[in-house]
Amino acid sequence: MKQNSKDLNNIAAKLIDICPTSIDLIDESVENQILMAANWLLSQELNAEDLYSIQNNLLSDKLKYVGPILAIKLALSKGFILTLDRPLRVSVVFAMYKEHNRIKTQNEHPHGENFLQRKVGQLRWLFDEKKNITFNLIPVDDGCPEGSGDIARNITKANDLHENVEVLFLKDAVDKNLEGAIGLKSTADSQKGGSIVYGMWHAVDKYGEQDHLVLYTDADLSTHLGQVGLLVNPILKSGKLAAIGSRRETDSVVLKTGVRNDRGKLFIYLWKRLIPNLGEIIDTQCGFKAFDGNIVRQITDNLIEKKFAFDIELLLRTQSIQPGSVEKVGIAWLDSEAASTTTDLQPYLSMLKAIVKMSTTYFESDESRDSFAAFINGLTDDKFNHLLEKIPAGITSREPFEFTSYDEVKASDLRALID
Predict the structure, then answer these.
(1) What is the pLDDT of residues 62-94, one digit of tens each?
(2) DSSP secondary structure letter of residue 307
(3) Which one, of 73, 75, 61, lies nearest residue 21 by Cα?
(4) pTM higher than 0.85
(5) Are 18 and 40 in contact (CB under 8 A)?
(6) How far is it, in rounded angstroms, from Cα 87 to Cα 133?
């Protein structure tokens, strides 16, 4: 039953009151408090329109209301899942490389997030009332020198998580020349992408393609998996082939340390000049994406990129199957940076060169794209670092969503800055 505005204001006030005022990913009690708030919202029997109305009012001060907005997104997610009567399997893949500290509890290590057990708990919260839905987590060791995969297996055994967790090792797939790892000579050829692709392939190989959604996420807890229903919804309800979490939508809420990243803007501006079929998609690198199981083999077969730019290739392939088939979904994303394996890497140049290969492979020659491709291929690390110090104001002064149409900075302009 639709609530009146006064009732909604009272519910919003109560929600703010019961949510934590600050968010600490490592503190499990904070997550539990937010889940209790989401459960309370569900008990109010609000429809989705009412929840969106409350959320929209809170979005006026996103950083102040991170907890309440996350609780609303969790309630929306579970609310949709509770309406599903069809059989469904949800597989969630994530790569592990040097995750030997974050996988531990905080008592075991200062950076411990206990992420494996907590991911299982998040998905159980979402699905346990629906006997027609089964889920499994597929952590994939990406050649971790510290043995993240072995640690994950020990945690799975010690906590009897076998029903929901299957730990894989990319090295095993490479050594056996499995279909999901074709093109990899060793785990050194993968930087996240190879493991994600292998995990996705394994999911459909073991559980089939029908009535199956395959997701991938990051190892950390930045994206609460209770939001999975937000991705399931557009695929099952609207017939989309994929749904991707985005940190750049009007209803997204992001809690991130650090400063504005002009280098990230340059990256987005450049890849937008190379890949013409992704339309309004901006946040290609958010680690929270879901795909219809029926297309997983098609989009993962013989990928060019098995490193950090693999997301873009999966999306452009999905769009090639059916234009407009990727739905963006605003999510709550809370940065988990303390023990990140990629914070200091930011491999923008290598990613851009991989995207050049995609552009020339998947799309016909175009004068503007060709000029950007030639410019990027000619960049050395030194030249790229020099460019990062001279990013034109036409890029830094704009928001990334503008780069779909804004193309006034030409490759020749960028070349002139560093020659």
Answers:
(1) 999 999 999 999 999 999 999 999 999 999 999
(2) S
(3) 61
(4) yes
(5) yes
(6) 6
